[in-house]
Amino acid sequence: MTFRITRGVSLVALAAAAVSLAACATTGQTGSSSAGQPQGAASGSAPRKPLAQGLDPSTNPDPFPSTYRPLPRENFVLTGATVLDGAGRRIENGVVVVTDGRVAAVGGADTAIPAGHRRVEARGRFVTPGVIDVHSHLGTSASPGVQGMNDTNEATSPNTAQVWAEHSVWPQDPGFNAARAGGVTTLQILPGSANLFGGRSVIVRNVPSVTVQGMKLPGAGYGLKMACGENPSRVYGGRNQSPATGMGNVAGYRAAFIAARDYKAKWDRWRETGQGEPPTRNLQMETLAGVLDGSIRVQNHCYRADEMAIMLDIAKEFGFKISAFHHAVEAYKLAPRLAREGVCADMWTGWWGFKMESLDAVEENVALVDAQPGGCAVVHSDDAELTQRLNQEAAAAVSAGRRLGLTIPEERAIQWITLNAARSLGIDGETGSLEPGKRADLVIWSANPLSVYARADQVFIDGALTYDRFNATYQPKSDFELGQPGHGLTPVAAVQGAR
Amino acid sequence: MRCKSLILAATAALALSSPALAQELTAITGGRVLTGTGVIENGVVVIRDGRIVSVGSGAAPAGARIIDARGKVVSPGLVAVDSGLAGSEVSSVPGSDDLRNSANSISASFDVSYGLDPWSITLPVARLGGVTRAVVTPDHPGGGAGGHAHDDSGYEAGVGDGGYQTPGLFAGQAAVIHLGQGTDIMVRPRVAMVAPFGEGGAGIVGGARGAQFTQFKETLDEVRLYARNRAAYDRAGLRDLSLSRADLEALIPVVEGRMPIIVTAHRAADILQVLRLAREERVKIILDGATEGWLVAADIAAADTPVLLNPIENLPASFERRAARMENAAALHAAGVVIAIKGNEGSTHRARETRYNAGNAVSHGLPYEAAIAAITANPARIFGFGGQAGELRAGAEADVVVWSGDPLEPLSQPQAIFIRGREQPLESRQTLLARRYRDGGEGALPPAYVK
Question: How much is the pLDDT for B148?
Answer without folding.
Answer: 44
